[in-house]
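Figure 3 (text version): structure tokens given as input.
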């Protein structure tokens, strides 16, 4: 049986308690679309409150430390996320890789720590505009998967991959449907190479300027199992439209 479409909102560094009204509205909307799995990743300061405020949707973190505890001022460990009520965490987002200098090896260590703490993982990969223009997009993403994917027992069962072309994040630009299809097929092949049969069931999400106007077309591409949504997830109205697009595609 195919997995449900997975629509995840990444709130990034947005959100105070006032934003919980949007989360509650998204949660109520999700009840209308039982064939879509919906989740939000708010700032860490809101995880506990959001978990208490919603009933149906998943709640996750946006990052975690690879160590369980220690003298790491300002960092949050995977067990802390779990204790706060998180179901999953996003790891390896291009903003973390670029702005914080995170390597594939560090992302892998974080992913293995998260899985060890009982969290699911959404692991992000994607190429820059220069890498795509040079014809290296697939090679770059394959290398990121090779270096970042966790290798612990049972990892594929709690892993999702989010393909986010760096040049499309927050820019309004979206790759062609053909480019998305080609990349998702390449990611699937790499996952099967890494995990064997288990790699065939890992959901691959698309991320990068996903909005109501383009969600249906993107979600209809083979091997696109959902979406990682940035700015459009901050509004219940726009995020619900994306959830609805996923539900229509799953209707048959």
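Below: residues designed for each position.
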């Amino acid at each position: 049986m195919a997995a449900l479409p997975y629509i995840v909102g990444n709130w990034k560094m947005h959100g105070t308690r006032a934003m919980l009204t949007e989360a509650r509205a998204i949660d109520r909307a999700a009840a209308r679309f039982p064939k879509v799995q919906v989740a939000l990743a708010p700032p860490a300061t809101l995880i506990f409150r959001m978990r208490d405020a919603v009933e149906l949707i998943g709640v996750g973190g946006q990052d975690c430390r690879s160590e369980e505890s220690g003298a790491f001022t300002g960092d949050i460990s995977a067990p802390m996320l779990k204790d706060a009520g998180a179901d999953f965490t996003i790891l390896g987002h291009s903003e973390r890789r670029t702005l914080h200098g995170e390597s594939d090896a560090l992302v892998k260590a974080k992913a293995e720590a998260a899985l060890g703490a009982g969290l699911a993982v959404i692991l992000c990969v994607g190429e820059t505009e220069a890498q795509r223009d040079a014809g290296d997009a697939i090679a770059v993403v394959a290398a990121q998967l090779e270096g970042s994917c966790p290798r612990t027992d049972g990892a594929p069962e709690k892993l999702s991959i989010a393909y986010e072309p760096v040049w499309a994040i927050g820019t309004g630009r979206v790759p062609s449907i053909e480019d998305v299809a080609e990349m998702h097929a390449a990611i699937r092949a790499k996952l099967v190479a890494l995990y064997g049969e288990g790699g065939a069931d890992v959901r691959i999400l698309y991320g990068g300027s996903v909005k109501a106007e383009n969600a249906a077309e993107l979600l209809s591409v083979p091997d696109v199992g959902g979406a990682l949504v940035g700015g459009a997830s901050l509004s219940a109205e726009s995020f619900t439209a994306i959830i609805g697009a996923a539900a229509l595609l799953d209707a048959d």
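The longest strand covers residues 120-125.
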